[in-house]
């Protein structure tokens, strides 16, 4: 039997702020949910130590995030103010106050 969690699609936009806060929202929606930096750090540690792998939907974004970090390092750019994951557009953005780098992600599994 399908659970309620299986019926709810993941948010379309995720923002990881330099402060460590993480927020998410749906395209066209007005509501935003934000986790404080301390909670995000705890979630990350729990996930890393759980022994489980990233969900199939998240893996291309994690791979792209790692590649983005490499690109930024190679370009001599510092940490962005915000990294934005646009799941619905298959894009990952690094945003600074006056600059933006966008990475398009290929081969994302279907969300439906």
Protein traits:
single chain, 112 residues, alpha+beta, 3 helices, 6 strands, globular
Description:
With 112 residues, the protein is of the alpha+beta class. The chain is 29% helix and 24% strand. It has one domain. A six-stranded antiparallel β-sheet has the order 3-2-1-4-5-6. A hairpin with a 4-residue loop joins β5 (91-95) and β6. It has three helices and six strands; from the N terminus they run αβββααβββ. The two termini are 17 Å apart. The radius of gyration is 15 Å and the shape is globular. The mean pLDDT is 82.
Classify the helix fraction into a percent range. 25-40%
How are strands sequenced across the largest beta sheet? 3-2-1-4-5-6
Principal-axes shape call: globular
The domain count comes to: 1
Q: End-to-end span in angstroms?
A: 17 Å
Please tally the helical runs, counting DSSP H or I stretches of 4 or more residues: 3
Largest sheet features: 6 strands, antiparallel
Number of strands: 6
Mean pLDDT score: 82
Report the order of strands and helices.
HEEEHHEEE
Question: What gyration radius follows from the Cα positions, in whole Å?
Answer: 15 Å
- What structural class should be given to the helix and strand makeup? alpha+beta
Assess the beta-strand content as a share of residues.
15-25%
- Spans of at least 5 consecutive residues with low confidence: none
């Amino acid at each position: 039997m399908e659970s309620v969690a299986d019926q709810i699609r993941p948010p379309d936009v995720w923002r990881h702020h330099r402060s460590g806060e993480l927020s998410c929202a749906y395209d066209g929606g007005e509501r935003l949910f934000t986790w404080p930096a301390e909670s995000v750090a705890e979630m990350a540690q729990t996930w890393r130590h759980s022994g489980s792998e990233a969900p199939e939907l998240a893996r291309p974004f994690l791979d792209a995030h790692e590649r983005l970090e490499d690109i930024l390092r190679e370009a001599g750019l510092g940490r962005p103010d915000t990294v934005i994951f646009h799941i619905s557009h298959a894009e990952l953005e690094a945003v600074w106050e006056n600059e933006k780098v966008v990475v398009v992600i290929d081969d994302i599994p279907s969300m439906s």
